[in-house]
Amino acid sequence: MEQAGKYIEERLPEETIFEGSATSDPIPVEPYSHSLKRAIQYFSKTEKGRFRFATKFTDVDTLLDVDHGGRTEVRFTLNTDRVIQDFETGTPLMSKRIEAAKKIISAEYPTGFLIAPVFLYNNWQNDYRNMLEQLKDVLLKKTVYPVTFEVISHRYTPRAKDIITKIFPDTKLPMDNEERTYKYGQFGYGKYLYQKEELEKIKSFFQEVIPAIFPDGVVKYII
Description:
Elements: H1 2-10, E1 16-19, H2 30-33, H3 35-44, E2 49-55, E3 72-78, H4 81-87, H5 94-106, E4 111-118, H6 124-138, E5 148-153, H7 158-167, E6 181-184, E7 190-193, H8 196-213, E8 218-222
Parallel strand pairs: 1-2, 2-3, 3-4, 4-5, 5-8
Antiparallel strand pairs: 6-7
């Protein structure tokens, strides 16, 4: 926290946002570590510091009574039940994640949703539309902060593919390099993305369906 304070001071008068889930999901260990709670309490007292993290998990009860001051954003990673059952074994189903998100919104945290990774498969549009409709039906009608959305299509690095196929040799993850486009990134390595036409399908679908279902929501990006 002391080091975070130094970073904030160095960047004044701009705000500095700190990411709490860059390398792992912090929620499963939070009931034991209370690290998130301490971070949230710290950033609630800063003028120019903000904190955020993303999770697929639902153990959020210890965060509900924390004085966050609206300076921590909690983002839930959502996906269709088919994707969760096929590729996210051991994580909560979509309905459980949405219930946890409702608790966080009720505690007046800024809240967002990462729809990721988006997979293209038969009937994918209906599944993702139904997911968003289910989200709308469960969430509070009025929120203190606009609900945000980030949409990320499925992509993978050669290293990630190598690790996954060694640990899960029978994986059904769609990782055929011949069907993808390779694109270099800003950190000196590249990823295999869907083809341009497929990415446009994803972008146009979510550009239409999210505002239709969540007219007050904010779409940060679709990639």
